[in-house]
Each structure stands twice: as C-alpha cells, then as structure tokens.
Amino acid sequence: MILALPARLFAPALMIVLSACAMQALDVPSGVVALPADRAQEVPCGGAAVVLGADGLVVTLAEALPDSAAKAGEGHQITVVLPGGQRRQATVLKRGTTTTAVALRISDLPAGITPVRLGDSAMAKVGDNLWTAGNSFGALEEDGAAAMSRGIISGSYTIPADSPTVRGRGGRGLSEYRGEVLEIDAAVNDGNQGGAALDGHGNLIGLVSLGTARSRRLGTVVPIHLVMKDLALDLPVVRSAVPVDSRTQALVRAAANVAPGLVLVYLERSNGLGNPQSVPRPPRLVEEVPKHERERLQRWWDAYYHQQQMFYTDQAVTALVVDAKKGLLLTAATHLHGDSQRGEVLLPSGSIPCTVLATNLPLDLVLLKAERPLPTAQITFAASPQLAVGQGVALIGRHVGDNGFTCTTGVVSTTTRRMAQNDAVFAQTDAMANYGSLGGAVVDSLGAVVGMLVLLGPEADWGLNSGVALFVDSATIARALPRLSDGTSTKRAPIVGLGVQLKYLKGSRPTITGVTKGTGAADAGMQAGDILLKVDGFDTVSHQAVSRALIRHRAGNKIDVIIERAGKELTLAVEIRAFGDEM
C-alpha cells in the first residue's frame, strides 16, 4: 500500500493508520528535508536528506544531491527545503568513501524540526515492517511534508561491485552505490533518494537509494550503521522491538519455513539472452536540443528505459524442489529464454548439473532433473488451496549465494485470470514480483504452498513489481506434475469454445464456414453459412471480441448464441467444450 500524505508543518499532528493490518500509527517526521534539483536538471524533483541532530547535522546520499553539488567537497553550500516550505543553506561536512553518504550541517535549524533517532539497522531482517519518508515527486518542496509509504524489508543482500549503472529517465545514472543493502517493497520514486527508511517506531534504519539489483529491481536502503561508520559519526542507537503486524509476520514465518525447499539454478543459454529486438539507445538529451526535438527524444528515452527495466538478465533463477530423492525441480518455463536446456543447481556444497525433463507451456511450467538426488528440503503443494480474493500471500525467491531468501507480501487479487482460449486459469496477486521471484513459491499465512509465480517477461503486458503477478495454483500444478514427470511436454492445450470456424468480411459479422463434430456448436445445430451475431450477450465485431466472450467460461458452461439463418435470428443454447488434442 502506498500512502502519499502531503501536510504542513503547522498543521495538527498527522497520523497514518492502517486499521486493516492493526499497524501502529506513525507521525510524519519533520526531520526529513528536501534537496531541490538544479533548474536545468531533467528530473521531476530533487532528493531528500535526514536531520540527525539539533545542531543541524544532516545525512543523505550522493545520488540525492543536485548536479551542481554532485562532486562538491567540504564547505560547499547546498539549498535545503524544510517541512512547511522554509529554505536554508547547508554546508557539506564530509563525504563517505564506501556508502556514497554525505554529511551536511544546517547552521540555523528551526526549533520545530525534530531530529530522527537512529534505529539498529544491523539487526534488521526480512519481514520487518518499514516506512519510507521522502520528497517523492516533490511532496516536500511543493506541499510541505514528506510523503510516506509502508512496506516490509523484502531482502538483504549485496549489490555486486561489477553491477551496471542503474539508469532512469533520459538515461540518467541513478546510483553508484555498490554494497550491502536492505531491499524493500515500499514505494520508492523520484525524490525518495537520500530520504529516510524508518522502523515501526519511526527510528532511522537507513537511507533510501534508487540503486537496485538487476534481478529484483525493487527499491533498496543503505543501512544506517554502514553510513555512520563511513562518515565516522557516533550517535545513540535506539534498540527496541519492532512492532508486529500479525498478518504480515505470519506470512514471513511461513516463507521462512518454506524457503529451504527453494534453490538457485543457473541455466546455460546457448543463444544468449532471449530478449525481443531492443529499442535502440537514443542520443543524449543536451541543452542545445530544440524543444520539439527534446519531446521526441524524451519519448524515445522513456520507451528505451521501460524496455531496459523489463529485459531478461542472466542471473541464477529460483526453482522449487518437488522431489529431492529424484532430483526434480519445478520453475517457470519463461526462464528457458535463449534456448536453455541444461544448467546447474547451485548449492552451498557445490553445483549439480541438471537438464530440462519436460515443459507445460500453457501453464508456463518446466520440470528440471538433476543428475543426482538433492541434499535439500522439498516443497509440498497444498492439495486444495481454496484461494479467495483478499487472502494474504507471500512470494518467495532464493537469493544469490548466501542461502538467504526474499519475500514480498500482498493479497490474492483474483482467481480467474485466463490468458488464452483454453482451460488454463491463473490466480493474480498484488505482491511485488520480479525475476528474482519468478518460479518461486506462493504461500499463505498458514504455511501452505498454494502456487508458483509464472508469466513474467518482456512480452508481458504488465511490468516487474507492477502489482500484477500471475501464479499457477497448487492444485493445477499437482495435476500437471505426473505428465511432466513422465517426460511428456505440453505445447498447446485443448481449445475451449464453441467449435466453429469463422470468416470475417470487412464491415460485416462473421460467417460460420465450418462446425467441428462432437462440439457444443454441432450438438446445438449450428451450421456452415450461419452468421454469428452475439456470443453470451457480446457483439461479434472481431475475433478478439468472440475470444474474450468465450475465455470467461470453462468447459461444461452453457451460453446463449444468437445467429442469423436465412434472414431470421435464432437463439441457441450452446455448451462450451474442450476440443482439439493436447500437444
């Protein structure tokens, strides 16, 4: 959930309450300030910083500084905007060497600004509740108070030193930080960089960064204990129990129990990464470019940036161990881009070669077989998941090399998503999903594995971490596993529909050119030459319209079909059936 709450410093104390989660209320902190961008910068707003002392001590990250101060040293003056809109000058005191942290001092800090207390970031763990406070899209600069967002710590890992630069609008580099981070599923937008990541008591556990891991692409936080060490600052740390959100913590505990049954698999890609043809990198946006040309280039950069965010990367992927003794692992067939047919299961004790045993493409499943038994736990799928809209779920991924796991939480958004005119039905969740969790387990608060995340990639209509994520439920997986275990692949599922062939002529409704024997259309008396007018109340204006009308139903449902025959309209009750061979 994202809460953007602009407020004035002089307004009554503003509290954020999530009654549905029994989440503790939190004051909007007055100790978060904005660092306005230079006028010439092609960015929506500037970054943020956090006040740590009544003497005006402020910390931020280099990525939050305006361009004119990007390399500024000790003594440089930077404008800051305080809650309520007042402006002050801050002086650079010191720059860190390992975290990109910057220490500033505001010489005349107003008495109404309350410094933010330090929390114990060294003890932060996956599943802890967290808030972000920053200048999101100019909230502090324009409306006088930090914008807040609530989430959890969804991962803890290191961004490798050789990671490519994270880029945003116009190809702008967003962060140069490489090192230990806390990943979060709270909202992180332009203006959050350098701002506060707060625990449930409002204590500072880190500075928000726009840096991301390529496989995850979720917001990150530089832990405050690393920042303080880098800047050689010593301030008191508040050590207190993190407030508990019972629903979230139940999901996190369930995720931790299931995580030992997840492994990392590195897949060999004989044809390289299987990305679609890329949008070429646009020329740089420079001051001299005319306005009309700038607009065109900006659209080009936006398209390029979006595709770069969705491109496949070559990291190891998450898989579920479904039979440790037989060495069987299940993951998303989407991972097989680049014509991958073999790989290695990565374990602390070493790697074990594996190969593709079989795939089910309609469900986006692939079963892998390791060369020998796996010395791991295994997943047990819920026999009857009984998914319900609004039910809490967690997505689990296995993260690089350290046996850690990632966890994002959300609810079941719907249970009846269909991507094609067949019986393949998917559930959907609003939990943040990315390549790090693709092929990972979906668990409920009781610890049951109720599904596996699938269908995420450059060709999908939804993006990474978009709040749209599809998964195959555990009962459907259980039905598919025997065929996969036998080594039998499924390329195409039987079609679910009427059983007619249609011909469209421009400006007219479709004519039935053939009827398949044994289908609902044949038994209802539909004939070649009939004109199809309506299907289940929907006009048959296109192939897509007919398909969308039928995709809503399962085999065995009966619907009304209106046809025209010899100038007369007839309404027929037609049973939807599956036909055509499974391949």
How is this structure best described in words?
The protein is mostly beta strands and about 575 residues long. The protein folds into 3 domains: about 1-245, Thrombin, subunit H, CATH 2.40.10.120; about 315-485, Thrombin, subunit H (Beta Barrel); about 495-580, Roll (Pdz3 Domain), CATH 2.30.42.10. Helix content is about 10%, strand content about 35%. The protein is built from 7 helices and 39 strands. A 6-stranded antiparallel barrel has the order 11-12-15-18-17-16. The protein has a 6-stranded antiparallel sheet with strand order 4-5-6-9-8-7, with no helix packed on it. A 6-stranded antiparallel β-barrel has the order 20-21-22-25-24-23. Strand 27 and strand 28 form a beta hairpin. The radius of gyration is 27 Å and the shape is globular. The protein starts with a strand and ends with a strand. Residues about 1-25 have low confidence and may be disordered.
Please render the helix and strand layout as text.
Layout (H helix, E strand, L loop, with lengths): L1 E2 L11 E4 L4 E5 L4 E4 L11 E5 L5 E5 L15 E5 L5 E9 L5 E6 L11 E2 L9 E6 L4 H5 L3 E12 L7 E2 L5 E3 L4 E5 L11 E3 L5 E6 L10 E4 H7 L6 E2 L7 H13 L3 E7 L22 H20 L6 E7 L4 E5 L9 E6 L2 E11 L4 E6 L21 E7 L6 E13 L8 E4 L11 E4 L4 E6 L14 E5 H12 L9 E3 L2 E4 L7 E5 L4 H5 L6 E5 L2 E2 L3 H9 L6 E8 L2 E8 L1 E3 L4
Parallel strand pairs: 10-19
Antiparallel strand pairs: 1-12, 2-3, 4-5, 5-6, 6-9, 7-8, 8-9, 11-12, 11-16, 12-15, 13-14, 15-18, 16-17, 17-18, 20-21, 20-23, 21-22, 22-25, 23-24, 24-25, 26-27, 26-29, 27-28, 28-31, 29-30, 30-31, 32-39, 33-34, 35-36, 35-37, 37-38
